[in-house]
Design goal:
With 470 residues, this protein is of the alpha/beta class. Helix 11 crosses helix 12 (366-386) and helix 12 (366-386) runs antiparallel to helix 13. It has helices at residues 18-22, 40-49, 59-65, 84-99, 121-128, 163-166, 199-206, 228-246, 272-287, 309-320, 342-352, 366-386, 393-405, 419-424, 436-451; strands spanning 4-7, 10-13, 72-77, 107-112, 139-141, 148-154, 157-162, 170-176, 179-180, 184-185, 250-251, 253-258, 264-270, 288-291, 295-301, 323-332, 410-413, 457-460, 466-469. It has 15 helices and 19 strands. Strands 3, 4, 5, 8, 11, 12 and 13 form a seven-stranded mixed β-sheet that branches. The protein has a four-stranded parallel β-sheet with strand order 17-16-15-18, with helices on both faces. Helix 5 links the parallel strand 4 (107-112) and strand 5 (139-141).
């Protein structure tokens, strides 16, 4: 079958020379296993009656014997997340709460923005699905700078939490699990920190991602144990849960995993941490692709992340796990919305200002290029740490990938960046202006001529997959 990749809404093919295909130099990853899908309505019944772990108080038992008529807060993701699970689960949860006698006036829907901006009205409508507009007046949008309650300190930093959450009788985070490039896996405790915490403790936790140069050891997609960001998150969230319990607030976590076809393959309720860890096992089954060895060139489609360069960086990061040091990462992302974030562009301008004539397009030998990348990375990382703001870490991530592959070994196929913006980022843009398949084919033919026709290739058409090398 002819290899294909997605470029926006287009399917791109015919970009690999016949010789590469005939010599079987395209290494196909072992794709994830399929899991039995779950009917969310039936799954919801288990969420209420069969908690994880066994012995944990179920939601049904809580409402049968302990509920005092207080506020029930449902924590949901903000507009930066897909929210497919929210659209399905939130209306079902609200109906179930009504059937259990919870008055609509006692329900709050807390949007876990972390340090992001507040979602707009159209974005809230998209998040809530059929629960909109009936519950629009029940929405509380978290603000990391105000309406907070302090639940003590940790390492000298105030641990502040959204006031509505802290004053609720029951808190139910509705989370889904996906791989995250520095937190390891989204969902679970991440719905609390940074979801509904104050900016000070959020910043302190996020800074755990940085090592001496680039990200710290253990900071990676799919890694929880040994990941300093996750491990600190657990410490903070455990303190939050303990202090909330002392105030009479109980937290019951709900975690789910959707497969690449967006069907539920895991749905459970109970302990916030245990449901998350059990869900990660399923996530690994359905999203881990295995390679027998690293390859010279990884082509990755940014797919839905390719609307802007900031989001497309997640695809670049995903490809890094499968490419050899000194190899090439080729990203397909139209970037119709341009760069995506001003902080990202501003820090890359700072990085570019450290370069000599020719900027990122200069022709440098391997060792000179690596030394320059390291110099730029140290300068930019220092600036990021000194004036940290969420989003700035993306520049460190991009430069870390560049340090792995080497000067000039990041390639981007796009059509939404201006000529000035292209100069600021460390990509090559071969044969810009041609159709994407022609750009790729000419670039591969040129690469083959320069490197003797022995290179190996891998195609990653889903940036959500996690590559593991056997």
């Amino acid at each position: 079958m002819e290899p294909v990749l997605h470029y926006g809404s287009r399917v791109v093919k015919g970009f690999l020379p016949k010789k590469v295909l005939d010599e079987a130099r395209v290494v196909k990853p072992e794709l994830p296993k399929s899991c039995e899908t779950i009917d969310p309505k039936k799954g919801l019944e288990k969420v209420f009656s069969d908690p994880v772990p066994s012995g944990f108080t179920s939601l049904q038992d809580f409402f049968d014997g302990f509920y005092r008529g207080g506020v029930v807060s449902l924590i949901i993701d903000d507009h930066t997340r897909p929210n497919i699970h929210t659209k399905i689960l939130l209306p079902m949860f609200l109906e179930k709460l009504r059937s259990l006698g919870v008055s609509k006036t006692r329900v709050r829907i807390v949007v876990a923005t972390g340090t992001h901006r507040a979602p707009r009205g159209d974005e809230l409508r998209n998040i809530m699905g059929e629960a909109w507009p009936a519950y629009r007046d029940n929405i509380v949008v978290h603000d990391s700078g105000k309406n907070l309650v302090c639940l003590g300190e940790l390492d000298g930093v105030p641990v502040e939490v959204n006031r509505v959450v802290a004053s609720s009788e029951l808190v139910i985070p509705l989370t889904d699990l996906e791989y995250h490039y520095f937190a390891g896996v989204s969902g679970g405790p991440k719905s609390i920190l940074p979801g509904v915490t104050g900016a000070k403790i959020t910043t302190f936790e996020h800074l755990k991602m940085f090592g001496e140069l680039g990200f710290a050891r253990g900071v990676a997609r799919g890694v929880l144990r040994g990941n300093p960001v996750y491990e600190y998150k657990v410490r903070v969230v455990k303190q939050i849960l303990d202090r909330l319990a002392q105030r009479g607030t109980w937290v019951y976590g709900v975690a789910c995993v959707l497969n690449p076809s967006k069907r539920f393959v895991y749905l459970a309720g109970g302990d916030l941490f245990e449901t998350h860890l059990e869900g990660k096992k399923v996530l690994d089954l359905v999203y881990t692709a295995r390679l027998r060895e690293r390859v010279d060139v990884v082509f990755v489609s940014a797919k839905q992340l390719g609307l802007n360069l900031y989001q497309a960086g997640k695809a670049v990061h995903a490809a890094k796990d499968g490419v050899k040091p000194g190899g090439w990462v080729v990203t397909l992302a139209p970037c119709f919305d341009g760069v995506g974030r001003n902080e990202f562009l501003g820090l890359m301008r700072l990085a570019t200002n450290q370069l000599g004539a020719g900027g990122w397009q200069a022709d440098l030998d391997k060792e000179t290029g690596l030394r320059l990348i390291e110099k730029v990375l140290r300068i930019v990382q220092g600036e990021v740490v000194r004036r940290f703001k969420i989003g700035k870490q993306k520049v460190v991530d991009l430069l870390t990938v560049l340090l792995h592959v080497g000067w000039g070994h990041l390639v981007l196929v796009e059509e939404g960046l201006s000529s000035e913006e292209r100069k600021v980022f460390p990509f090559k843009y071969p044969f810009h202006g041609l159709p994407p398949e022609k750009r790729l084919l000419r670039w591969v033919e040129q690469l083959e001529q320069e490197h003797g026709g022995e290179l190996t290739y891998c195609l990653l058409d889903d940036p959500g997959l996690l590559i593991r090398v056997a």
